[in-house]
Design a protein that fits this description.
The chain is α+β, with helices and mostly antiparallel strands and about 290 residues long. It has a domain at about 175-245. About 70% of the residues lie in helices and about 10% in strands. It has 9 helices and 5 strands, in the order ααβαααββαααββα. The protein has helices spanning about 1-45, 45-65, 85-100, 105-110, 115, 155-170, 170-205, 215-240, 260-285; strands at about 70-80, 120-125, 145-150, 245-250, 255. Strands 1, 2, 3, 4 and 5 form a 5-stranded antiparallel sheet that branches. The longest helix has about 45 residues, at about 1-45. The protein is elongated, with a radius of gyration of 38 Å. The two termini are about 70 Å apart.
Length: about 290
């Protein structure tokens, strides 16, 4: 009985394996036929594809040759007020004016001539992760980058000054900076008065040096330490007053250009693919 069941199972396995072989054979035949048809079609239309690819590849190369040179430059800036996204929005609006060729409006905002504005190709803000600044909703006070593309590098120095002024010059920011300046000056005045007061205390303690006790020595040491701390604070406040700015340039614009050969190859390849695609589309429609 067991031998009969085993033989039966063995026979069913052979049938299943044979059925799978037949299905594989049909599948290979189907895909092989498709591949052979594709090869035949390509051979038949080879010269047509080649001519279209060469024509559009040459057009792409010609466009790259005639295209204006574009120089890219990055500027690293730090900031004190507002958030990064607001600056990203402000830069995005400038780029919108560029895209719509509203050179007069952009000239007014950046205080540059329209001839200088016409030499700017794009303006963009990105964060330290190389992401668009308009999408950055983080609140960490870390520097960000202003990236511009220009046709003439001579406009970069003026563009740098104009962008810094544009991002910094608002009523809200100016009021905050004035408030900071008043607070710093008031604290410096208070700290200097504290220094004078401590000097008078030290003079009282030192009037009779020969009779100084241990408590007087401890008090003098404490006064000296406190004066040193106050002096350090005054120094920090005066430095803050000197650099009481919203936008500070950490690394200015330095222009660079992608190699011409790389751009040429890119446009030629794009032309080749477009030409082949258009030839295929024409054959389908035909």
């Amino acid at each position: 009985m067991e031998d009969h069941s085993f033989s039966k199972s063995k026979e069913e396995g052979r049938k299943i394996w044979k059925s799978l072989q037949n299905q594989w054979g049909e599948a290979f035949g189907f895909f092989g036929g498709m591949f052979s048809s594709l090869i035949g079609f390509i051979k038949q239309q080879f010269w047509g594809f080649l001519i279209f690819a060469i024509i559009f590849g040459a057009m792409g190369g010609t466009y790259a040759w005639m295209k204006k040179n574009i120089f890219r430059a990055e500027m690293t800036v730090s900031y004190a007020q507002l958030e990064k996204k607001i600056y990203g929005d402000m830069l995005f609006k400038l780029n919108q004016l560029l895209d719509s060729k509203q050179y007069a409006s952009l000239s007014e905002k950046l205080n540059m001539t329209e001839a200088q504005i016409a030499q700017i190709h794009s303006i963009e803000g990105i964060n330290i992760h190389n992401q668009p600044l308009v999408k950055d909703i983080s609140v960490e006070k870390v520097p960000f980058y202003i990236v511009v593309e220009v046709y003439d590098v001579e406009v970069l120095p003026q563009l740098q000054k104009s962008l810094v002024k544009y991002l910094s010059d608002s009523d809200f920011i100016n009021e905050r900076l004035l408030l900071n300046e008043r607070n710093y000056k008031n604290e410096v005045t208070h700290m200097k008065n504290q220094m004078v007061y401590m000097d008078s205390l030290k003079m009282l303690l030192l009037r009779d040096c020969s009779n100084l006790d241990a408590d007087a020595v401890i008090n003098l040491e404490k006064l000296n330490k406190d004066q040193n701390d106050i002096f350090g604070r005054i120094r920090d406040l005066e430095a803050a007053l000197q650099f009481n700015k919203n936008i500070e340039v950490m690394d200015g614009f330095i222009a660079h250009q992608n190699p011409f050969s790389r751009m040429m190859i890119r446009y030629i390849l794009m032309g080749l693919f477009v030409g082949a695609g258009l030839r295929l589309l024409w054959l389908i429609i035909k």
